[in-house]
């Protein structure tokens, strides 16, 4: 679990410093795919070490109990649900996801997974991307049983989809161990091109399954999370090999998304440009209201970056001052800023337009 998931989408930050999330006009179904940055409890139902079901996870939720989110409180999908005016979507594996709850959407994400099926093999029983897409098909059948085929298709077509995946393919695959199988198979540039080509297939499959508004996030500062600082850079400098990976990956992801939209002939996929403002955010956290971007709130060892976040870990008293909640994952407050930027940021951060603009245009079209 020490190498669970690198922060993938959280540095979409820009200069937006709002403390509340913008609300858009019309509620719609919401579907979530990806890794631990967006998992809200699916792995609680699986026999895996990639879980966040023990304290102090969830310490800042109303119940102060762990929910399966890799956060002290809300994660990115929660804040997007707030913006949509909806209740948080349930994990797909939750027995509570039935009846009218299906109308809200579903979260298929699973901590530890990547674009590639061999990513996160150490976690064994996780919901890999091909399985998440199969579950999406299964969900649609269940929804059709509830509301009829045509209405189910409309709900999916009008929905918002979030997919956050890719960081693990570097941290829990290519760079997991020295001379890993993938690093022997590919040079880094060739590996990035391979990842992008495989990701394109996943996005095209989402489109084929009816998704028409898909928010795609890239990787953040892979070499700057506390776990990587603790393992690779005791001086506190970001690990250069992982930073190079992110620098190669993110522009190619945006290019691929633009090409896919051109091929389809519509602005289906929205690219959250995680490369923008990353260096400034890491080097000057106080400009964003944080005390540190190097030390995790919960953990142990250098930068609180080693091992798991447990009841025996160091725990900061004020989570709002920390960019990172644990060695890999952002705090609730960082997640809020991420979503505010996705909603209201400039095209430097979200393209071809921010999420609020896109959803407002959809609302006008439907009315």
From TrEMBL:
Q: Which InterPro entries match?
A: GDSL, GDSL_Est/Lipase, SGNH_hydro_sf, SGNH_plant_lipase-like
Keywords of this entry:
Hydrolase, Lipid degradation, Lipid metabolism, Signal
Pfam families in UniProt? Lipase_GDSL
Q: Name one GO biological process term.
A: lipid catabolic process
Q: Where is the signal peptide?
A: 1-18
The protein's matches in SUPFAM superfamilies, at most eight in alphabetical order, are given as: SGNH hydrolase
Q: Which GO terms describe its molecular function?
A: hydrolase activity, acting on ester bonds
Q: Which domain of life is it from?
A: Eukaryota
The cross-references to PANTHER family, in alphabetical order and at most eight, read: GDSL LIPASE/ACYLHYDROLASE FAMILY PROTEIN (AFU_ORTHOLOGUE AFUA_4G14700) (PTHR45648), OS02G0617400 PROTEIN (PTHR45648:SF166)
Which family does the record claim for this protein? Belongs to the 'GDSL' lipolytic enzyme family.
Q: Which named protein is this?
A: GDSL-like Lipase/Acylhydrolase superfamily protein
């Amino acid at each position: 679990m020490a190498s669970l998931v690198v922060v993938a989408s959280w540095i979409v930050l820009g200069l937006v410093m709002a403390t509340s999330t913008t609300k858009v006009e019309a509620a719609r179904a919401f579907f979530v795919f990806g890794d631990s940055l967006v998992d809200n409890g699916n792995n609680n139902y699986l026999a895996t070490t990639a879980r966040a079901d023990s304290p102090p996870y969830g310490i800042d939720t109303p119940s102060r109990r762990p929910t399966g989110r890799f956060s002290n409180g809300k994660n990115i999908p929660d804040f997007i649900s707030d913006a949509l005016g909806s209740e948080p979507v349930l994990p797909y594996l939750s027995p509570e996801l039935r009846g009218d709850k299906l109308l809200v959407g579903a979260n298929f994400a699973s901590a530890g997974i990547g674009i590639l099926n061999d990513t996160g093999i150490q976690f064994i029983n996780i919901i890999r991307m091909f399985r998440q897409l199969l579950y999406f098909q299964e969900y649609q059948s269940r929804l059709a049983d509830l509301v009829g085929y045509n209405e189910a298709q409309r709900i999916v077509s009008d929905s918002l989809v979030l997919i956050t995946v890719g960081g693990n393919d570097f941290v829990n695959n290519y760079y997991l161990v020295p001379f890993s199988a993938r690093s022997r198979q590919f040079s880094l540039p060739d590996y990035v091109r391979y990842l992008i080509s495989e990701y394109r297939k996943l996005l095209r499959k989402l489109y084929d399954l009816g998704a028409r508004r898909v928010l795609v996030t890239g990787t953040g500062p892979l070499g700057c999370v506390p776990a990587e600082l603790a393992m690779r850079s005791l001086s506190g400098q970001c690990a250069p090999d992982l930073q190079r990976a992110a620098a190669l990956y993110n522009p190619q992801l945006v290019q691929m998304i633009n090409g896919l939209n051109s091929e389809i002939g519509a602005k289906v996929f929205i690219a959250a440009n995680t490369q923008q403002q990353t260096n400034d955010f890491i080097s000057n956290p106080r400009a964003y209201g944080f005390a540190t971007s190097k030390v995790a709130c919960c953990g142990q060892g250098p930068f609180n970056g080693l091992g798991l976040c447990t009841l025996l870990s160091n725990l900061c008293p004020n989570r709002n001052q920390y960019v990172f909640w644990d060695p890999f994952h952002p705090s609730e407050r960082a997640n809020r800023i991420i979503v505010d930027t996705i909603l209201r940021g400039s095209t430097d951060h979200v393209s071809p337009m921010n999420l609020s603009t896109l959803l407002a245009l959809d609302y006008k079209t439907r009315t």
